[in-house]
Amino acid sequence: MLMSFEKSKVLVVGGAGFVGSNLCHLLLSEGTVKELWIVDNFLSSVQRNVPRDPRVRFVFGSITDARILSQLPRDIEYVFHLACYHGNQSSIADPFADLENNTLTSLKLFDALKDFSSLRKVVYAAAGCAVAEKTYDDAKPTTEDAPVSLFHDSPYSISKLVGELYGNFYFRRYGLPLVKARFQNVYGPREILGAGQWRGTSHTVWRNVVPTFIWKSLHGEALPLDNSGNTSRDFIFVEDTVKGLLACAVNGKAGEVYNLASGVETSIFELAKMINTFIGNQTPVDLRPARDWDRSGKRFGSVDKAREKLGFEAKVSLAEGLGRTITWTKHEQENILRTMLTHSYFVPDVLRYVETNNRGAENVR
Ligand SMILES: NC(=O)c1ccc[n+]([C@@H]2O[C@H](COP(=O)([O-])OP(=O)(O)OC[C@H]3O[C@@H](n4cnc5c(N)ncnc54)[C@H](O)[C@@H]3O)[C@@H](O)[C@H]2O)c1
CATH classification of 2-192+234-264+297-317 is 3.40.50.1820, yes or no? Predict the structure, then answer.
């Protein structure tokens, strides 16, 4: 698959982020790209995620800025649009920042790209959560053509969907070769707790469930289970997701949408149990009520279309992926803590890890 990118110019918008940086590292380590352009404003990412490689052309700033867009070479062949305003809670705290970095990013990028003549594919990171049915009964796998509600629990979710709508418009009207890749819950190395600027809530530090649980478990804490851990998700290892993105770029049909899912439903309770078992954390979990904004219940993605049309299948089991993420977290814990501490004014609670890390470093190494 990586041979398809041989000697090509690739742009990754949001390439310093969690998924974006994994994609960039893969394109550089195994691929033979000629130039890898990365645009990022470090809103929810860190500089050290940007690969150091002579083929990288890093442009610091927002993709909504006309001066940034005008710097991009017109002969780019592949674009991966991974920029967003991370995440649901931040978007509720500041819907306008979400509009600027999650909706306008898509509109301005697609509008600029319509005039690029060498484009082979533009892959947009869409979100499965914006489409999934909201249920607490038995969940069915969410297919690509599932009905979409007009009622959403966060501006983030709205923006991800609007990105798809703008993409469809630019595809139909201008022939933009856009493919939408709908992610489920991605986890893995390079998701750094606290990465980027303060975005209004403690979720700036505690980004997603997997890195949060791993960090807390490594520090012997009770894992907090909203809605008593009764919700479920489809967890997909980032290495699989980025391979899925490449499959979308190479085999995806313009105008189409594909789920990048593991197809495995895992309850948050099960997830917590697995992480605590792997780490050896014996502190009982902390059962809590449901979050007021979250009605998404149980969900997982259908894998049929991606398997059939892209030849894509997630390969890494949750057990293996969690093991690799735990190992990476232990290795990176000092860097992660340093990043978390940049928000200590707003989340003073993180200061206690300075002491814990010094005291019990041997436990987390
Ligand atoms: N991680 C998941 O589980 C998941 C699930 C569904 C969808 N997605 C989508 O996948 C993409 C990547 O997610 P992620 O988890 O890597 O998030 P991330 O926050 O780590 O990455 C997003 C990147 O975009 C950058 N960015 C934000 N605003 C920008 C702007 N105006 N101009 C340029 N760059 C900007 C951020 O600094 C960051 O580096 C996002 O579009 C997200 O909505 C992710």
Answer: no
Distance (Å) from CA 330 to ligand 1 centroid: 24
Residue nearest to atom 42 of ligand 1 (CA): 84
pLDDT score for 365:
41
* Residue with tokens 């894992």, as numbered in its chain: 223
Q: Which residues of 261-283 are buried (b: 16+ CB within 10 A; e: fewer)?
A: bbbbbbbbbebbebbbebbebee
* Distance from Cα 16 to the centre of ligand 1, integer Å: 9
Closest CA to 85 of 163, 27, 188, 182: 163
What is the best residue among 50, 64, 84, 210 to mutate for testing ligand 1's pocket, by most ligand atoms within 8 Å of CB?
Answer: 84
Predicted TM-score (pTM) of the model is 0.96
Own/partner pairs, 132-138, CB within 8 angstroms, 24+ separation: 132/296, 132/299, 133/299, 134/295, 134/296, 134/297, 135/297, 135/298, 135/299, 136/230, 136/231, 136/297, 136/298, 137/298, 138/298
- Report the alpha-carbon distance of residue 363 to residue 365 in Å, rounded: 6
- Give percent above pLDDT 70 in the chain: 96
Q: What is the pLDDT of residue 364?
A: 46
3 and 71 in contact (C-beta within 8 Å)?
no
Residues of the chain under the 70 pLDDT cut: 291-294, 296, 359-365
Q: Whose CA is nearest to atom 43 of ligand 1?
A: 84
Cis (ω within 30 of 0) for the bond into 15? Answer: no
Residue 155 tokens read as: 């501006």
